[in-house]
From TrEMBL:
Organism in which the protein naturally occurs: Streptomyces varsoviensis
Keywords: Signal
Protein's UniProt name: Lipoprotein
Polar residues composition bias: residue spans: 28-38, 135-146
UniProt key word Cytoplasm: no
Region (Disordered): 27-47, 124-153, 243-272
Length: 292
């Protein structure tokens, strides 16, 4: 059933691009990471603020040090209905949950589970064929020591959007003090021209993130994007937003962040509720033959 695998892989890939593709380390130095820990992001005094690039670098670094948090993404393009996606991330032990109207995905310990109603008596399926615990332990490769923060996942679009601002925005500025979701925040804004970003090579944005951002923006038909980031008094990113014009009309994507450090309590489904890939294919094939 190559068609089934292709469609499922596409669905999982879309969810992973949204949530898990933003993985890896950061290019912020330890001294920059300490910035933003005072009452005002980047400042030693309550009314003092560091330059926008310093604040955003520090916020990104601080985010990478958190073990867990939640984010809600809403998106609206042209006349299409607004979409909503809820995501939760935990670094140790690794776990991610992504929920939207179309997809409910869990990733726990490197195994992905997709919610399904297609398999009688099962609520989930996995594309990974099960092995016995003994076999997994016997064939597991030795763990590779992580570089500093290299394995810390940063979820959502933060690394793409903030990285793009730091890499290519020529008008990044401090907009002012605002209240965002009940939190006092400092608001930063910049414009990213994709043609400028395409030629960027430097520490603010790795080539992988740059290419991913250009691919997604190019597919949507954008030429440039206006990106806003709100950083709260503790140096955490509270909200971010990207706006631009696409082939389908004006587009706005907003992410809000919360529950930094709070365990999202994501657990793998009970094995008795999980169908194997073979079981899912068999059930889906039967459904297609019945209704096709």
């Amino acid at each position: 059933m190559k068609v089934i695998r292709k469609s499922v892989t596409a669905a999982i890939s879309a969810a992973l691009v949204m949530g898990l593709a933003a993985c890896g380390g950061h290019d912020t130095t330890a001294s920059e990471a300490k910035s933003g820990s005072s009452a005002r992001p980047g400042g030693a005094v309550a009314d003092e603020r560091a330059p926008a690039p310093v604040v955003l670098k520090a916020a990104l670094a601080k985010m990478a040090r958190q073990n867990s948090y939640r984010t809600v993404e809403t998106a609206k393009t042209g006349g299409e209905p607004e979409s909503r996606t809820e995501m939760a991330f935990r670094n140790e032990p690794e776990a991610t949950e992504i929920k939207s109207a179309e997809v409910h995905l869990l990733s726990v310990g490197g195994t992905s589970y997709m919610a399904t109603k297609d398999v009688p008596g099962k609520s989930w399926f996995t594309m990974d064929e099960p092995d016995s615990g003994t076999k997994k332990q016997a064939t597991a490769s030795p763990s590779t020591p992580l570089k500093e923060n290299a394995g810390r996942r940063v979820g959502g679009s933060v690394k793409k959007w903030v990285g793009a601002l730091l890499a290519a925005s020529k008008d990044l500025k401090d907009v002012g003090r605002e209240t965002t979701g009940g939190r006092a925040t400092d608001h930063y804004r910049g414009t990213v021209v994709l043609a400028d970003l395409k030629n960027y090579e430097g520490p603010a944005m790795t080539k992988d993130y740059r290419d991913l951002y250009l691919l997604q923006s190019g597919t949507a038909g954008r030429k440039k994007a206006e990106i806003d980031v709100w950083v709260d008094e503790n140096g955490f990113i509270a909200k971010e937003e990207e706006k631009g014009t696409t082939a389908k009309g004006d587009e706005r994507i907003t992410e809000t962040f919360s529950d930094y450090g709070a365990d999202p309590k994501i657990e793998a489904p009970d094995p008795k509720d999980v169908a194997t890939w073979s079981q899912y294919v068999a059930a889906s094939g039967k459904r297609y033959r019945t209704h096709g």
